[in-house]
Amino acid sequence: MPIELLQPHTHAGRRLPAGARLDLPEASARWLIAQGVARLVTPDSPTPAASLKPSRRDGPAAAATSTGD
């Protein structure tokens, strides 16, 4: 069952970040979903990169905090 982590989680000894996608046995996936650690991935779910894209702040405050990278 495909899931996406909503928060960092250790799975099989590996530390995974929020947004990581896993394909788990149904019982494991449902347990993580019930704990609020993951959500079910459906065919219409956005990709992790799209859902984790930072929002852009416009205006003088954004210019003042820019690092120039």
TrEMBL record:
DUF7210 domain location: 1-38
Region (Disordered) residue spans: 42-69
Highest taxon of source:
Bacteria
> Per its record, how is this protein called by name?
DUF7210 domain-containing protein
> Which species expresses this protein natively?
Ralstonia mannitolilytica
The taxonomic lineage of its organism, from the top, reads: Bacteria, Pseudomonadati, Pseudomonadota, Betaproteobacteria, Burkholderiales
